[in-house]
Specification:
The complex is a heterodimer of chains A (353) and B (256). Chain A is mainly alpha-helical and 353 residues long. Chain A has helices spanning 2-23, 29-49, 54-57, 66-70, 77-80, 85-104, 108-123, 132-144, 171-201, 204-207, 211-217, 225-232, 235-250, 252-255, 259-279, 283-293, 299-319, 321-350. Chain A has two domains: 2-202 and 251-313, no CATH class; 320-350. In chain A, 73% of the residues lie in helices and 0% in strands. The relative contact order of chain A is 0.10. By secondary structure, chain B is an alpha+beta fold. Chain B folds into two domains: 2-61; 79-252, no CATH class. In chain B, strands 1, 2, 3, 4, 5 and 6 form a six-stranded antiparallel sheet that branches. Chain B is elongated, with a radius of gyration of 28 Å. Classes of the chains: A mainly alpha (353), B alpha+beta (256). Chains A and B meet through α1, α3, α4, α8 and α9 of A and α1, α4, α5, α7 and α8 of B.
């Protein structure tokens, strides 16, 4: 009987802790801000590196991929389906600018929506050339819609007059939604690692330890052949790398349970993703994985790292202040002389004076 | 009286906090239930998944929450693949000339060497080759013979019927037919970029070879392994719009 009471007390205690955690304060604000920055950079990097070939990738000349596009279930496909190359370019640039806004944390919630819709609309135009990283970027952006991603390290946080009208929900709901979003994205990340780890251990090539060797021998995964050979030719390095990949992905979830092992597994996972970003030439999808993995690093650590980066950056910003102000003056002059002048001319032509 | 008012206000505040907390907890439970559904969708077939309903799960997950087991790099690969295309171009009112084969995958690899962030379009040859190789394997020997013997002027419906009568499953026929359309369009734009004459027919071939085992690394590399080829018959070229062709020309660095 006493065991039942103790179990009931324990459950009640867990429930109270969960309620307090969900409603008390917003958690992991620095980690979430970093995720916003890295996912924004991931989308921006993808769009910039594909800009010159965008018409073949997703524009006029992607007509060859039409049968694959036709079976896509994303409604956003219709946003760019059949549009001219010029319209594609305009939308493409708007999404790039929104990604810049997301990185800077400028009107972060609106930018998240624009980037999410634009990213799906662009990448879903050519499913043949999709990447597994696309799924993670989309899922992260979806969960970020609930979160307060710009409470720190953003232009929104430094606005002189924060506009309450930007937030339609009351503070308690915003806090609750942020924490729920964090739970959802955290669960999604754990699921991705667990599924990745289980998938690998079920394959004979991973069991034999040669999966990385065969992958790194394929021409498309060897942008730097000397690096691929360095990692895959030697037995010891190959075994170490294989075991680290398997251990990190398979034991990611249980290692999160203690603070010490949590930092270790998150650090190892981030290190591996940086390595494979270069070795496999997949920087943008790796950046998205780093973004969500960083959620499990203690927020104090990120805050301390942010302060250290700011300390390093201040002297540089201080020294270049005159130059930056001069550039800003030139931009402002150009804006007043050309853009506003042109806008006035258009306005006076269209509307009655 | 004042004490009663204060108690009432405290109770009202407590009630308000209670329903707010309940709402947020309910949302968190929904988030976890969602994660459980995604996990079930990812899980191999089994009694639990069947009980929930595989197609129901798929309709919930697809498209926004769709993901795969290999959401995280590195994924294991061991097959090198190639896509080659060539064309018959009009050289006179009654004559055509066959161009040499163009190695699409090799050209892509040349463009992406030493590039840590290659453009996605450089994957086109490789992806088409991978998908076509898989589709060709699914067709079986008799189906592949039909594909090789299929020629220009033969409507797609006839090809499908021939594949079905060769014993190929309907799903595999449909998958191959879509890929055949994509490869034909891609080959048309690609080959047209390299000639001033009009491309009237195109042909593609795909190949695959497996990376030799790690133990043999000092004796044999994948580049020394011969390709296994699958050929398709000639197809009527699909003329792209002027904008599409111009974009392809620009991508391939062809100056007109």
């Amino acid at each position: 009987m006493s065991t039942l009471w103790r179990l009931r007390d324990a459950l009640a205690g867990t429930r109270r802790s969960a309620e307090l955690w969900l409603t008390g304060e917003r958690h992991a604000l620095h980690a979430v801000a970093l995720a916003r920055i890295l996912v924004g950079l991931s989308v921006l990097g993808l769009l910039v590196t594909n800009y010159s070939t965008r018409q073949v990738w997703v524009g006029d000349a992607s007509a060859w991929a039409e049968p694959a596009r036709a079976v896509s279930r994303f409604p956003e496909v219709s946003l760019l389906d059949g549009v001219s190359g010029d319209v594609l370019t305009v939308v493409y640039v708007v999404v790039m600018l929104a990604a810049v806004g997301l990185v800077l944390g400028w009107r972060a919630k609106a930018m998240t929506i624009v980037v999410l819709l634009g990213f799906i609309a662009v990448t879903a135009q050519n499913p043949v050339l999709g990447s597994i990283g696309d799924n993670l970027v989309r899922l992260t952006l979806l969960w970020m819609l609930l979160m307060r991603t710009a409470d720190v390290w953003s232009l929104d946080a430094h606005r002189l007059e924060p506009r309450e009208s930007d937030d339609v929900a009351p503070d308690w709901l915003r806090t609750g939604l942020h924490n729920v979003g964090l739970v959802g994205l955290g669960a999604q990340t754990v699921l991705a690692y667990l599924a990745g780890g289980l998938d690998k251990v079920s394959q004979p090539v991973w069991q034999q330890g040669t999966a990385l060797y065969t992958t790194l021998q394929l021409p498309e995964f060897r942008p730097f052949p000397w690096l691929s050979d360095l990692l895959s030719n030697g037995t010891v390095v190959l075994a170490l790398l294989t075991w680290t990949v398997l251990a990190v992905q398979l034991f990611f979830a249980p290692m999160l349970l203690r603070r010490g092992t949590r930092n270790l597994v998150a650090g190892l996972a981030i290190g591996l993703n940086v390595l494979f970003a270069v070795v496999l030439a997949t920087p943008w999808s790796s950046l998205a994985v780093v973004a969500v993995t960083g959620l499990f690093v203690s927020d104090d650590r990120w805050a301390a790292l942010g302060e250290r980066v700011a300390d390093l950056a201040w002297p540089v910003l201080d020294r270049t202040a005159d130059l930056r102000y001069a550039v800003a003056d030139r931009v402002a002059d150009w804006w007043y002389d050309h853009v506003l002048g042109l806008w006035d001319r258009v306005r006076f032509t269209v509307f009655r004076r | 009286m004042a004490g009663g008012d204060a108690d009432g206000a405290r109770q009202a505040e407590q009630d308000r906090r209670d329903w707010r907390t309940t709402l947020v907890v309910a949302l968190a439970v929904l988030a976890l239930a969602h994660s459980l559904l995604v996990a079930l969708w990812l899980a191999p077939r089994g009694p639990v998944r069947e009980a929930v309903g595989g197609s129901l799960l798929a309709s919930y997950v697809d498209p926004y929450f769709r993901q795969s087991w290999d959401l995280l790099e590195p994924s294991a690969q061991r097959v090198d693949e190639a896509l080659w295309v060539r064309a018959r171009v009009r050289t006179g009112p009654e004559t055509v000339t066959v161009t040499p084969w163009l190695d699409v995958t090799k050209a892509d690899l040349t463009r992406t060497r030493d590039d840590v962030a290659p453009a996605r379009v450089h994957l086109a040859g490789r992806r088409l080759a991978t998908n076509l190789n898989n589709a060709m394997f699914a067709l079986g020997r008799s189906g592949r013979r039909v594909v090789l013997e299929s020629t220009v002027g033969r409507p797609p419906e006839t090809l499908r019927a021939a594949l079905l009568s060769a014993g190929v499953r309907a799903d595999d026929v449909a998958a191959y037919a879509d890929l055949d359309t994509m490869a034909t369009r891609f080959a048309s734009l690609y080959t047209q970029a390299y000639t001033d004459r009009r491309v009237v027919q195109v042909q593609y071939r795909v190949a695959r070879r497996t990376v030799p085992p790690h133990a043999d690394r000092d004796e044999r590399r994948v580049s020394s392994v011969p390709f296994e080829w699958f050929d398709a018959g000639w197809r009527a070229a699909v003329r792209g719009s002027a904008e599409a062709q111009s974009a392809f020309d620009g991508y391939l660095g062809v100056d007109r």
